[in-house]
Amino acid sequence: RNFFTKRTKELKPAIQSAPGWKLFGKVPPRENLPKDSKIIQQEYEARTGRMYKPPPPSARRKNIEFEPLSTTALILEDRPANLPAKSVEEALRHRQEYDEMVAEAKKREIKEAHKRKKIMRERFKQEENIASAMVIWVNEILPNWEGMRATRRVRELWWQGLPPSVRGKVWSLAVGNELNITPELYEIFLSRAKERWKSFSETSSENDIEGASVADREASLELIKLDISRTFPSLYIFQKGGPYHDLLHSVLGAYTCYRPDVGYVQGMSFIAAVLILNLEEADAFIAFANLLNKPCQLAFFRVDHSMMLKYFAAFEVFFEENLPKLFLHFKSYSLTPDIYLIDWIFTLYSKSLPLDLACRVWDVFCRDGEEFLFRTGLGILRLYEDILLQMDFIHIAQFLTKLPEDITSEKLFSCIAAIQMQNSNKKWAQVFASLMKDNKEGDKNHSPALKS
Prior knowledge:
Layout: H1 2-17, H2 37-48, H3 88-141, H4 145-148, H5 152-159, H6 164-175, H7 183-203, H8 206-211, H9 214-218, H10 221-228, H11 245-258, H12 268-278, H13 281-291, H14 295-301, H15 305-322, H16 324-332, H17 338-346, H18 355-368, H19 370-383, H20 385-388, H21 393-401, H22 409-418, E1 422-423, E2 426-427, H23 428-437, H24 439-444, H25 448-451
Antiparallel strand pairs: 1-2
Helix pairs in contact: 6-18, 7-11, 10-11, 11-12, 11-13, 12-13, 15-16, 15-23, 18-19, 19-22
């Protein structure tokens, strides 16, 4: 004991004056006294032979936007005092690597800053265009709707997308109200739906629901609720407890009572949801009922196979005309339009495309009618033609079922504009009318997927 005590007292001054290596343990506080900042600076200058000079005030970064941020830049420091110093070659190499990393970080951040500024410029420009268009729609077009709706100026303005503040109003006017539905009629069918749901919840069991008629079964609370929870799940506003959950449920329930011959069909919730986001409750129901009364929507929601096949046949006529290579590629795999078109048409692209882009498709759809739905489908195929030509049947079906999320309105609408809806001097309506007359044409283009 005396031996070690004596040795410790002898070595104590040496340990304090010359720090050494210590592994797997903490240096006791008495052996690691804190150094003053001036002493640390003096040791650094004595070791490196360089004097530290603080940067002058004028050398401070003026344009922070194009400088590397603290999260990406690196700080080059020498090794701690208790480690061997770097050699000259190693120090030079580390300095060069450090400068290269900082330069790359700076380039990357400059590029990102330019990208952000470009996005902001485009956003400001878009907002200015929307504001100026809104003034035109509110002050000039809407007060003189019947006289101006078909003019070239209005159609061109319409193609660019409707301002969100007038979108619902324009949709209502464009869709019309041929069914002469009133808000009072909506309240009648809504109350009838509530009574039916109440009777189902009180008296009916699951077996009773299974044995009920198609209209009653699909008007039940549970079946509609199940589809509502799947409507725009990322928005959460239509989920249970969300602000629009009960509203969407009311519109869908009232429609099933209004049209028991159609009932509730999966996909309707997306159409009703888009209308609810842009219109008041009663107006959304009126537009919903009239929209689903159009020939194309009625054929699909009634699952009228013969009519659906004629729409697919008409689509393929223009598909072959506009995209012959892709048409032959699809034909080689026996990939028929129903595989991807059914989902697009059922939800009017509101499920397949980003919501803001889907609303712009709706804008022109309300202007041009069913033709634009199929023209949009051809625009999507044109946009991704090069990718689709490299895929097989399975990958094509998967790709078109779930389109990329980064699709932009500018790219899509430029492709839609390039689609010519004319075949042998016949437009869409003429081609479809000729197919309606020829019943055999539907049999020739019979789609195996519809059998299942």
